[in-house]
Amino acid sequence: QVQLVESGGGLVQPGGSLRLSCAASGSSCSINAMGWYRQAPGKERELVAGVSRFGSTNYADSVKGRFTISRDNAKNTVYLQMNSLKPEDTAVYYCYVLAGGRDFRYWGQGTQVTVSS
Q: I want to staple 40 with a disulfide (CB 3.0 to 4.6 A). Which of 14, 69, 83, 91 is the partner?
């Protein structure tokens, strides 16, 4: 199976920036897509951004123009550059991977992002 290790979360003031990273290891299966969901207390988990192994990206409307996702397929690593952060971005961010012919989903442990003055 795939193991995901996330890093980069923390506390930042509104308007600040953070960079999340997620590295996948432990599987010989192809990784078809990587990205992040986030979940705030009392809310459903929602897709933030994703990128396929071919470079196709998608973003939640709420983060377009502020967040940028990128990937290094050779390292099986994905990055999320988060700029102009807002208090509404406060959540636990969960890295995900879709791997194998059946797109089996794996989850990271989650990293807390808090945007507050």
A: 91
Residue 48 and residue 113 in contact, taking contact as beta carbons nearer than 8 Å:
no
The span from the CA of 76 to the CA of 90, in Å, is 26
Please provide the DSSP assignment of 24-39 as one string.
EES--SPEEEEEEEEE
Alpha carbons within 13 angstroms on the beta-carbon side of residue 51 total 17
Contact by Cβ (8 Å): 2, 26: yes
For the stretch 51-76, pLDDT in tens is 998 899 999 999 999 999 999 878 88
10-44, pLDDT tens digit by residue?
Answer: 999 999 999 999 999 987 778 899 999 999 999 99
Tokens linked to 70: 């990128």
CA–CA dist 107, 54 (Å, integer): 21
Q: Which residue has tokens 């994905």?
A: 78
Give the tokens for residue 69: 């996702």
